[in-house]
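Tip: read the tokens left to right.
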């Protein structure tokens, strides 16, 4: 039996890159999508996957373009002969207070962070068969908490679990599972962006309120992705799983 194949959007950095490496270590072949012009070098992911003993095809893609996602899903099948898993990880994070937010800013955020997930799963599910799995990366912002000056981001991320619950029901007759991961504070290039997110100082300050005493690592989220797409989770679908070091269950201080 040939090795399974996973499609990952936003694979050039952060959680997406960590998922690619984790898959490589488990013998899952990787097709990684990245946005052309993004400052993160997709060749780094390619090298990390190969260093881990895996196979990787990195391709430019745009989750706002349905044709782009249809093309990368088809390329996965053409290159490796199959497609088993899809991880919708690509995301946009921008700060915008409500009174200053334009319709264009709102629409752009939802187009990437919510509709982009739908497009990813629509294109991938054309090729995924029984035993396959879909995982979307949401956020604690929207998935659990509100976040001031990020209403558009939180709204998009809040919509992801609803999308995945519905797809879990719709795709179950085909033997395809669909789940959502809701990460808490994870150290990634996105969260280290001090303009649109917390930045390094903000993460360090926030870590003091996390019961486990630190922010999370992208590799920890990646391990959960591997579990939710692997045979060990064969009876789990339609769920939203929080990975946050206990942040959402702590007693307010």
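Filled-in amino acids:
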């Amino acid at each position: 039996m040939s090795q399974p194949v996973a499609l990952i959007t936003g694979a050039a950095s952060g959680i997406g890159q960590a998922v690619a490496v984790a898959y490589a270590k488990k013998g899952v072949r990787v097709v990684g999508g990245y946005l052309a012009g993004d400052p993160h070098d997709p060749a780094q992911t390619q090298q990390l996957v190969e260093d881990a003993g895996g196979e990787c095809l990195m391709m430019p893609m745009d989750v706002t373009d349905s044709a782009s996602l249809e093309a990368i899903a088809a390329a996965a099948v053409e290159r490796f002969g199959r497609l088993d898993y899809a991880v919708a990880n690509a995301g946009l994070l921008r700060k915008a207070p409500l009174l200053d937010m334009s319709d264009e800013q709102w629409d752009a955020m939802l187009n990437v962070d919510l509709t982009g997930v739908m497009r990813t799963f629509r294109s991938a599910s054309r090729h995924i068969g029984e035993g396959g799995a879909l995982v979307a990366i949401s956020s604690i912002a929207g998935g659990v908490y509100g976040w001031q000056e990020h209403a558009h981001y939180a709204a998009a991320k809040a919509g992801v679990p609803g999308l995945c619950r519905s797809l879990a029901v719709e795709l179950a007759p085909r033997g395809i599972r669909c789940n959502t991961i809701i990460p808490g504070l994870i150290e990634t290039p996105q969260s280290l962006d001090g303009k649109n997110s917390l930045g390094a100082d903000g993460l360090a300050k926030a870590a003091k309120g996390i019961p486990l005493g630190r922010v999370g690592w992208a590799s920890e989220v990646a391990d959960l992705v591997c579990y939710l797409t692997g045979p060990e989770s064969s009876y789990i679908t339609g769920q939203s799983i929080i990975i946050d070091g206990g942040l959402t269950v702590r007693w307010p201080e």
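The chain has a mean pLDDT of 94. The chain is about 40% helix and 15% strand.
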